[in-house]
């Protein structure tokens, strides 16, 4: 009787290996993926998710080795800090951040993986009817911004005597928002924002407040400002316009990354969707929504 070489695999061995591989694939499979965090990034992830689901519907259409189960992607907004907490508390697969990851957060997330999707900036924006656009030629210095947002300048006439003596309405994000931390660090420093400021729960709500009120001023997302072109006016900061070129070069310095983070290894479906976010199609959505795609 012919003997098999020592390293030869029997039919039974091959079948066992295939069964093991199939089981591993099954263990690695998750039909549902959840995101929580930044209100700036949430609509972007939602849009890419919608496009992805409309194209494939079930996971087997994406990869034939995956089960025929519906693709489900949940996205909830609550601020960048809430995104990190959701990952730590294991109530979301991914946290969405519109700011850098803090060192303290890196220490808490044991097996941190982070993926940069795009770049945003904070534009100091006003209502188109605000006289500051003409009076200051659409420009504020960093010192003037600090005096406005701290409440030292209470009326628009304090900024420029040609302006009416009407109260300045300051609009900020709430303290859990990534935008607040970026603005505090890059503009305000040790000076606190006025307690009389209106704290908007989302970046969309912040922008709406500026659109509604001729006396309002706030730090509006570059991407969301682009989505509302003409409805609010971004000012120059120290003579520098918040343009794509100036943001990429760092000349306009109130910038922030758009990041998703994960604790632990990605499942196969999570890796597929992260690849989609960073793909040409995903990056086009980021650009179409007014943000700057991230170039690796």
Can you tell me the CATH topology of the largest domain? Answer: D-Maltodextrin-Binding Protein, domain 2
Helical stretch count? 14
Average pLDDT confidence is 92
Number of strands: 12
Shape: elongated
Q: What's the story with the biggest beta sheet?
A: 10 strands, mixed
Quaternary structure type: single chain
Tell me the β content. 15-25%
Name the poorly predicted regions: none
Order of helices and strands: HEHHEHEHEHEHHEHEHEHEEHEHHE
What would your notes on this structure say?
By secondary structure, the protein is an alpha/beta fold. It contains 14 helices and 12 strands. The chain has helices at residues 11-27, 42-56, 59-62, 80-88, 103-108, 132-135, 142-150, 156-159, 178-188, 203-212, 222-227, 244-249, 268-277, 280-288, and strands spanning 32-37, 72-77, 94-97, 112-126, 139-140, 169-173, 198-200, 216-221, 233-234, 236-237, 255-263, 292-293. The strands form 2 sheets. Strands 1, 2, 3, 4, 6, 7, 8, 9, 11 and 12 form a 10-stranded mixed sheet that branches. Strands 5-10 form a two-stranded parallel sheet. The model has no long low-confidence stretch (mean pLDDT 92).
């Amino acid at each position: 009787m012919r003997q098999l070489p020592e390293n030869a695999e029997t039919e039974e061995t091959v079948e066992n290996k295939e069964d093991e591989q199939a089981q591993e694939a099954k263990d690695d499979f998750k039909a549902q993926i959840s995101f929580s965090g930044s209100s700036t990034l949430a609509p972007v992830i939602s849009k890419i998710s919608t496009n992805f689901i409309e194209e494939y519907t079930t996971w087997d259409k994406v990869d034939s080795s995956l089960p025929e189960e519906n693709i489900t992607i949940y996205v909830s907004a609550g601020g960048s800090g809430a995104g990190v907490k959701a990952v730590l508390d294991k109530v979301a697969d991914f946290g969405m951040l519109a700011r850098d990851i803090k060192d303290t957060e890196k220490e808490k997330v044991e097996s941190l993986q982070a993926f940069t999707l795009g770049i945003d900036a904070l534009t100091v924006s006003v209502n188109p009817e605000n006289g500051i656009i003409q009076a200051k030629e659409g420009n504020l210095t960093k010192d003037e911004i600090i005096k406005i947002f701290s409440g030292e300048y209470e009326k628009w006439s304090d900024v420029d005597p040609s302006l009416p003596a009407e109260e300045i309405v300051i609009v900020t994000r709430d303290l859990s928002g990534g935008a607040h931390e970026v603005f505090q660090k890059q503009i305000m420093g040790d000076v606190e924002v006025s307690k009389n400021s209106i704290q908007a729960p989302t970046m969309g709500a912040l922008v709406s407040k500026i659109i509604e009120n001729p006396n309002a001023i706030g730090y509006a997302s570059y991407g969301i400002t682009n989505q509302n072109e003409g409805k609010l006016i971004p000012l120059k900061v120290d003579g520098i316009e918040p343009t794509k070129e100036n943001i990429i070069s760092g000349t306009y310095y109130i910038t922030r990354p758009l990041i998703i983070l994960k604790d632990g290894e990605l499942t196969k479906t999570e890796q597929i969707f992260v690849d989609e976010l960073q793909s040409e199609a995903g990056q086009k959505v980021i650009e179409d929504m007014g943000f700057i795609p991230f170039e690796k």
